[in-house]
Amino acid sequence: KVEASSLNKLMNEGFYRTEHLTLKILAQQLDMPEYRTRALINQTLGYRNFNDYINQLRVNEAAQRLLDNLQTPVLNISLDVGYRTLSSFNRAFKDIQNMSPSQYRQQSLAPST
Predict the structure, then answer these.
(1) Is 53 in contact with 67 (CB distance < 8 Å)?
(2) Segments of 13-109 assigned E as strands
(3) Which of 27, 50, 56, 89 would give a disulfide with 78, using CB separation of 3.0 to 4.6 Å?
(4) Res. 49 pLDDT band, cuts 50 70 90
């Protein structure tokens, strides 16, 4: 339980935005063996794998920022949340939201009928 709250605290502080973030780096930051960190993410939190978990956190923040900061280019938001390329961001975003970041932003602007 302590491990899960340490992980949540770290992620709430935005650690998932770290560029080149790996399971190894995360485990070191938590002062926990890699296998325990992996088990925490997979079994305790129920993600398929580390990348799935990180993408979920990054895309959640990005989705919020796409709507809050309409003037900010998608590329800037993708870099801010930790992606190195727009294409990897678009791919992850589409996997999770089932639409591209631009579509997501457009849809929110469309008047609901």
Answers:
(1) no
(2) none
(3) 89
(4) very high
